């Protein structure tokens, strides 16, 4: 990937590598974020999401590789860089005695322009605790304040590290509606999340990270298409008799099989549902036990990354 | 970083400081209370001051009480309050948070430093007004020299406090260190009772403490001392200025080397 600044790319990352002692947190990671898009980084804990986003924010110096954000180097061109970005960190970063209103006014004063504070406060539901001290807020309230502070300077690019963790469904919905409105005005959004349904619903591009490396990246629908997965079938093990994972894996339409103590998950192409149903009736298993649904981003995630199954057990 | 942002930062830091009842008590109420209590008791004792011309001017202990108080108020802000703010910034990732904003990091040291200076000035003004109204105090020195002495003392204390806590990430540890530094200094400096009564060894230790120099500078300058006047430490005023300036310079250099932003 070129080191030349681009007008159409908000973020350009080439061969990024970051090591902490013996642990390789991010390894040979390259990707680009288009201007005006909503870009989502997904991965399990320890995948390198926060390290990656902190390299983009200029808070961490990459060991090798290059990062350009809004056409500038976050560390070398720091003075220019900080005017172009907004950041929400996972950790706290506001004095506990500072009131929410004071934090908003202070951060608004730091930038050349700012979003209308009354609207920002209303949309992120801060109105009820503007006069409260930051230290006395609940986890979800603190997170909303930090999101507001990331957005208040009306940045070109905003980095949000797990912004919706700890928010209730209503707050999450309102957060995404507000983010989409800012995105429609041209703001580029780079976000990490644990919620796959959010990534699917709101993000233009999804990047899967695992153990510091890129697994796959692209628009959610395209990722599903390219994976060859069309459907997922779940079979309760108790009803299967002698049928096991290996029998199912041998079927031509099956791409992947995972077994847990109670169930077998079968992933496959367009024929998988019929083929599994036929196979089961051949083996004398009642076809009513089969449960199927179209493949989605969760399946891509679990196949690419997953050691945990979606029902909570270990594979 | 524009002027509006800096103003907003200082106002916000001032509001935060006002929310520390302990610090406000130490900075405003305690010195005033000490001033009044001593002013009405030992304050009446006369202090004859002989000028270079041979003329002897009569002052009273009450006249210099507030000068001595300001010395330890400056120490409270420099050694305890400012480092507490900086340790809190470190502990709560506030330095880190501001690093991704247009605010230059050094402003986060300048702002609480300025707030401390403002509170010291308010504390001084409060004692001056009360002193004039209630105790009829006199001032026999140069306002510029006194102002310079307060400034240099505060700078030395602030640099010392910042250097000592440069790597502390916990406000309790920071406060402990500040108190360990401040409390013996307060006693040995003579700010809370004449140090001439102490054993010689303790007096010698006191001679090297910055608060002793600040205390002597301010009380002597208040009564009209010149650069050459010898204070209770046994050195001229200019040596105390140089000593405090030297502590400030060494501690600033140490802070630059040691200071951790996260």
Give a quick precis of the structure:
By secondary structure, chain A is an alpha/beta fold.
Strand content of chain B: under 5%
Mean pLDDT of chain A: 89
Q: Which sequence of strands runs across the widest sheet of chain A? A: 5-6-7-3-8-9
Distance between the termini of chain B: 22 Å
Number of domains of chain A: 2
Shape of chain B: globular
- Assembly type of the shown chains? heterodimer
Low-confidence segments of chain B: none
Which second-level CATH architecture of the largest domain in chain A applies?
3-Layer(aba) Sandwich
Structural class of chain B: mainly alpha
What report would you give on this structure?
The complex is a heterodimer of chains A (315) and B (262). Chain A is an alpha/beta fold. Chain A has 2 domains: 9-218, P-loop containing nucleotide triphosphate hydrolases (Rossmann fold), CATH 3.40.50.300; 229-304, YebC, transcriptional regulation domain (Alpha-Beta Plaits, 2-Layer Sandwich). Helices cover 32% and strands 27% of the residues of chain A. Chain A is built from 11 helices and 13 strands. Chain A has helices at residues 49-56, 78-84, 100-110, 117-123, 139-151, 169-184, 196-202, 220-227, 245-249, 272-282, 297-304; strands at residues 9-20, 23-34, 38-42, 64-69, 85-88, 157-161, 188-193, 205-210, 213-218, 231-236, 254-259, 263-268, 291-294. In chain A, strands 5-6-7-3-8-9 form a 6-stranded mixed beta sheet, with helices on both faces. In chain A, strands 11-12-10-13 form a 4-stranded antiparallel beta sheet. The relative contact order of chain A is 0.13. Mean pLDDT of chain A is 89; it is low at 307-315. Chain B is mainly alpha-helical. Chain B has one domain. Helices cover 71% and strands 4% of the residues of chain B. Chain B has helices at residues 3-18, 21-40, 61-91, 94-99, 107-135, 143-164, 171-188, 200-207, 210-222, 237-258; strands at 46-50, 56-60. Chain B has a two-stranded antiparallel ribbon with strand order 1-2. The model of chain B has no long low-confidence stretch (mean pLDDT 93). The chains are: A alpha/beta (315), B mainly alpha (262). The interface between A and B is medium-sized, with 26 and 24 residues.
